Amino acid sequence: MQQNPSDLRQLEALLDFYTESGVDCFLGDDQVDWYELTRQQAARRRQNQASQAPIQPTPQAAPPSAPTPGAAQASGLSKVPSVPANATGNLAGGGLAAVVPDKEIVDAARDLAATAASLEDLRACLDSFDGCNLKLTAKKLVFADGNPAAKLMFVGEAPGRDEDLQGKPFVGRSGQLLDSMLDAIGLDRSSAYIANVVPWRPPGNRTPTPQETEICKPFIQRQIELVNPDILVFLGAASAKTLLGVQEGIRKMRGRWMSYPTKGGEISVIATYHPAYLLRSPLEKRLAWRDFLSIKARLSGE
Q1: Whole-prediction pTM value?
Q2: Which of 134, 170, 264, 281 is at a distance of 20 to 30 A from 99, taking alpha carbons?
Q3: pLDDT tens digit sequence for 201-252
Q4: Pairing between strand 145-146 and 192-196?
């Protein structure tokens, strides 16, 4: 049966739309509880192990070799907390299995982040941390970009497709707009440090779940402490709500100077529109421009 050329063009246009929107995987029509499937697989493995007779070592058996130190230990960390036992082993393909995001995982993330004495240590901690399921689908860890010694730090919500491919935050269309906004006040990426609350891209650019955000939260909190900027800028309501614990929308929150508490004191903080939102709503750029002028004035001590 010959296909109608117009139908093929419509299909190509639809695929192009999905690709530009960041959708790069297909899901089934039926809902699947992957956590339940993982638990079932783990239960079957335990049953199989219990049914097998234990193998007694022979006298000639060589002692097991010492485990290779992980990335966090290689970076100089002394004792890194491990992910709790509800991580259910390996998948058939050899990758890590999904974990059930619970309080134990959040506590493990908090303990691990606290061991980082430097940004290099913190990145090593994230490389070794297997408590967030987003790591299973992301291509790269998106840790940060810019100058860690800068007085200005930006925090977004999560990386997108371009960021996942390059391993740097805000490098797609949103990042290009952010660069233009910085240039408009006489700054560039060497004058700022840029990161996200969630360092791994959610599949299809979906919004991170509250559990995923809560697991990643201790790492961005430690990242802010280590950078210790003079001014912290939240790009969008999601990062502001996560780190300030507020429930206001970005329209009410933006443009207002607030304080972010740290162990050493407080950091001046302001929230503004996310560049991705400004691409969809260009009329709001005028308000974002006011926010950036306020940031410039605060940096210069005015």
Answers
A1: 0.71
A2: 170
A3: 999 999 999 999 999 999 999 999 999 999 999 999 999 999 999 999 999 9
A4: antiparallel
